[in-house]
Specification:
- By secondary structure, this protein is mostly beta strands.
- Helices cover 0% and strands 52% of the residues.
- The protein has no helices and 8 strands.
- It has strands at 12-19, 28-33, 36-39, 43-49, 55-62, 67-75, 81-85, 95-98.
- The strands form 2 sheets. A 4-stranded mixed beta sheet has the order 4-1-7-8, with no helix packed on it.
- Strand 2 and strand 3 (36-39) form a beta hairpin.
- The chain starts with 11 loop residues before the first strand and ends with a strand.
């Protein structure tokens, strides 16, 4: 079983800008880091990721009925800023690209 690292050992941060689509139907974004979901807000935020290896960061939108707009990307040491954009309608996949 993995032990929890003490606070302050995760040194690398990734900036993630989550842009709000025109039609959301009361959806809220959720950010996943290596499969673990974290509630998020629209706009720009920073997320702590481990220093070693690639970490998969994903975003999806959820409105209490269905989830949509899922996009994921494995970040490396060179990725420091990402932009997430959902599709124009509340169906289908989103896009995540470097800023």
């Amino acid at each position: 079983m993995e032990t929890t690292q003490p606070s302050g050992t995760t040194k690398r941060r990734v900036e993630l800008e989550i842009t709000r689509p025109m039609l959301t139907w009361f959806a809220r974004p959720t950010v996943t880091i290596d499969g673990v979901g974290h509630p998020a807000q629209w706009g720009t935020g920073t997320w702590a990721v481990p220093d070693d290896g690639g970490t998969e960061i994903g975003v999806y939108l959820y409105n209490r009925v269905w989830r949509f707009g899922a996009a994921a990307r494995t970040v490396t040491a060179t990725d420091v800023s990402l932009v997430y954009r959902a599709g124009p309608l509340p169906v289908g996949a989103g896009r995540m690209a470097p800023a």
